[in-house]
Amino acid sequence: GAVIAGGRYDGLIGRMGGPDAPGVGWAGGIERLALLAEADLPAPRPVALVPIGDAAEAATLPLAERLRAAGYRIDMAFDGNLKKRMKRADRIGARAAVLIGTDELAEGAATVRDLDSGEQGRAPLDTLAEALTPFR
């Protein structure tokens, strides 16, 4: 059913004994509005952390904690090769993948891939939470 409805009521006052006048009106169902306000919103899509190599796996754990503390839903995959890890990110509906390998560790950066558009770029590890803001 409708939450808010309305319309024109020209001549309504005249039919009730008053002067003939144009009219409009609307009403909102407070119960329905309250139900909508309490409705569960869809959960934010996760960000997939994809470590590449043993050194990256160790470095990614504290990074995951920092990103979770900043309010991100983080998923990490340690099983399989890069292709399998990226398939997992796609399967869970991740919004972005953060790839960290030996090259990224040496630079102190991560490769951030937008999983909707396929675009990617580098972001410094120390400001990664801010760089991921578009993926909230």
CATH class value of the largest domain: Alpha Beta
Question: How many whole angstroms does the radius of gyration measure?
Answer: 26 Å
What's the end-to-end separation, in Å?
32 Å
> Can you summarize the main beta sheet?
5 strands, mixed
CATH fold annotation of the largest domain:
Rossmann fold
Q: Structural class given helices, strands, pairing?
A: alpha/beta
Topology order in helix (H) and strand (E) letters = EHEHEHEHEHEEH
Strand content: 25-35%
Strand order, main sheet: write it out. 4-3-5-6-7
Please count the beta strands (DSSP E, at least 2 residues each): 7
Bulk shape: rod-shaped
Helix share bin: 25-40%
Number of helices: 6
Shape-level CATH architecture of the largest domain: 3-Layer(aba) Sandwich
Q: Specify the CATH homologous superfamily of the largest domain.
A: Anticodon-binding domain
Mean pLDDT level: 92
**Count of discrete domains:** 2
Name the poorly predicted regions: none
Write up what this structure looks like.
This protein is α/β, with parallel strands linked by helices and 136 residues long. It folds into two domains: 4-38, no CATH class; 47-135, 3-Layer(aba) Sandwich (Rossmann fold). It contains six helices and seven strands, in the order βαβαβαβαβαββα. It has helices at residues 12-15, 30-38, 54-69, 82-91, 102-107, 128-131; strands at 4-8, 24-28, 47-51, 74-76, 96-100, 109-114, 120-124. The strands form two sheets. It has a five-stranded mixed β-sheet, sandwiched between helices. A two-stranded antiparallel sheet has the order 1-2. The longest helix is centred in the middle third of the chain and has 16 residues, at 54-69. It is rod-shaped and about 85 Å long.
